[in-house]
Fold this sequence. Notes:
Layout: H1 2-15, H2 46-51, E1 56-67, H3 80-83, E2 92-98, H4 105-109, H5 114-138, E3 142-144, E4 149-151, H6 156-166, E5 168-176, E6 179-186, E7 193-202, E8 213-221, E9 224-232, H7 241-255, E10 276-282, H8 291-299, H9 303-307, H10 311-318, E11 365-370, E12 374-381, E13 392-401, H11 403-408, H12 410-415, E14 426-429, E15 433-436
Parallel strand pairs: 1-2, 9-10
Antiparallel strand pairs: 1-13, 2-6, 3-4, 5-6, 7-8, 8-9, 10-11, 12-13, 14-15
Amino acid sequence: MWPRLVASKILNKRLGSNNFVADYSTNIEPLLGFTSIDDQSTQTSKANNLNDLNDTKKYNIFVSTWNVGGIAPDEDLNIDDLLDTSGTTCDIYVLGFQEIVPLKASNVLGSENRKISMKWNSLIREALNKRTRDHIGENNNIIKNNEQEVEVGNNPAQYNNKISAQDFQCIISKQMVGILISVWVRRHLRPFIQHPSVSCVGCGIMCCLGNKGSVSVRFQLHGTSFCFVCSHLASGGREGDEKLRNSNVSEIFSRTSFPRGGPLLDLPKKIPDHDLVVLLGDLNYRISLPEETTRLLVEGKHWDSLLENDQLRMELMSGNMLRGWNEGTIKFAPTYKYCPNSDVYYGCCYHGKASEKRRAPAWCDRIIWNGKGLKQLEYTRSESKLSDHRPVKAMFTAEVKVLGTTLKNLHSLFLSERFENLKSHIQVSSTAGLLCKKQSSFRL
């Protein structure tokens, strides 16, 4: 009992903070929780904005997960293959990592090593903005996005301004021990991102330390709430180990909690409450077949036979925690476990001690989702040999409700009991008139 209480205290001290890293220090929220038409950064006319009030917009979203096996990236590591989406540039990029530091006691119990997460964010920033510049160059200096199409021409100053407008910004980056999630959006979308928040759950040693668990992020884009859950679940290929993973998922869903946003807002608090939810990570689900049978089927690329015995697929179809969630069709080889710097699965090149574990190939690294409005366009893996896992990536289109949805709800807000709470947020002064106390969405 005492060790668990001590561990919980350490965990709360380490993970209790809702702070996260971003490219901007403050984000002043409008009092009623929506951005006025005059504040929109696209500088389109009021008439056009009013015509769009009842519209929806579609955005391309990139999601990836990669267990990097505790290996720090070199400054010249090329992640172009990871970010490649068949020539399509996305509006939002969500990159999840596991084991960015080795999961040894000093990292689990000691101070957070943020130098590694800074390296990864630096690599992501350079790669995303390089892709933007290259995309502009390959398309005859024409920049396209969901808001407008602008011809840059041969004016260097105008060219630089348009590139700057298309740069990607980090809106949330959060690390818990070895888990890191980093969210990037196009600069023109940033003013429409509201209420960013994070929540960390440790499910590791003594069921509470952060060597296993999740880092969840949420934000609202226009009138649609998003939640991305980056997880590293319990490992193990023995019979019954999948129950530990299911238990981890249950813990993550029950213990993850986001702020409501104050008395004037009713933001989603739990993971399933959000409009669109994506769960990504080293989920560690294995294939319930004898090791030799698994290896033979992998050699023959009999993916369907393997997937019939895949633990996560069975959980999605008939389980309790993830039943009803969605996953794209898997047409790629298992992502785990490879010999270092090779395309050979561990065990085929086995030269270790007889007591060492032999791990059969498995699709440990997965991306699943829930919610209406998400459509998956791509689900594949990358071929980086940095670790014993291969990265997995997916691309979605997301339908997002625009301002009209919020404005329609304004009438019901004024009629609700929550409107009474305005008294604590609005002061009437004879000299200043109406003063609104605005709240920052997060602290750094």
